[in-house]
TrEMBL record:
It comes from Nitratireductor kimnyeongensis. The lineage of its organism: Bacteria, Pseudomonadati, Pseudomonadota, Alphaproteobacteria, Hyphomicrobiales. Gene3D superfamilies: Spore Coat Polysaccharide Biosynthesis Protein SpsA, Chain A. This is Glycosyltransferase family 2 protein. Coiled coil: none annotated. Keywords: Glycosyltransferase, Transferase.
Amino acid sequence: MQFERSLGPTDLRIAVGIATTGRRSILHSVVPHLLDQTRPADSIVICAANLEDVDPEAMAAQISRTRIVFAERGLCRQRNRILESVEDADILLFLDDDFLLAPSYLEETAQIFRRYPDVVMSTGTVDADGILGPGIPLEDGLRLIGTCSKSASAGREKPVYSGYGCNMAVRLSTVRGYGLRFDENLPLYGWLEDVDFSRQLARYGRIVSSGRLHGVHLGTKSGRTSGLRLGYSQIANPVYLMGKKTMSPRHAAPQIMRNLVANAVKIVWPEPWVDRRGRLLGNMRAVRDLLRGRLSPQNVNVLE
């Protein structure tokens, strides 16, 4: 299937960037739904960590203007590779490989960036988030998208501290002009990479959340970081971001405490889809390293 679009003199070119690792099935199920957009993407760049993560021929046959690139595993590395691959775009929408867009999402995104030249990042309203539960099956996600896109009112944009990494669009002229990059010192899943990149951008313009941008995050559990490593990152990453001043203590301290308390309390009756024991153990190792002056986000690379 193909899509073609003629650019007008005031049009902004939109690229969609998706980083993926170990989730080939969900990637190939979700990406074709980008064809449902009322305003098609001008390009789609998928960054995989391995050849096994994606079938380039099948993807190209489904959607034109799709490019497959590769980078070493790690969300920040892969998103930086996407940034390097979209030289012909004005807006780049970062999506998780399990995020479904309402049909008007790209059209509304273009209108926001065209209407507000000071907006450097936009993020949408997530009508259902499978990350908070066992995950949402694709069929249910598509049904929810149909419901929310029909019933959603056009809300105004409001300022937010950061975008939500599963769906955040950036103005590339600002990103390029100031040489902004995702911090590759946040390895693997890149916990809080969206906050770090948002606060870099916030120095040069507004970050907004829009009630006109809707989507469903399936929250697929396969291919995610282990509980031990995520638990370590829940402490190490916000402490690191405080040090580089892209996360304020006012935001970082509650984030750390919420995770510590949730993991400690729920370890007694853990959710079947969450490794609370692993997360709490990771939290404790990070606290130990903090007290010893050895805390670093990259320590997750050697955790077992």
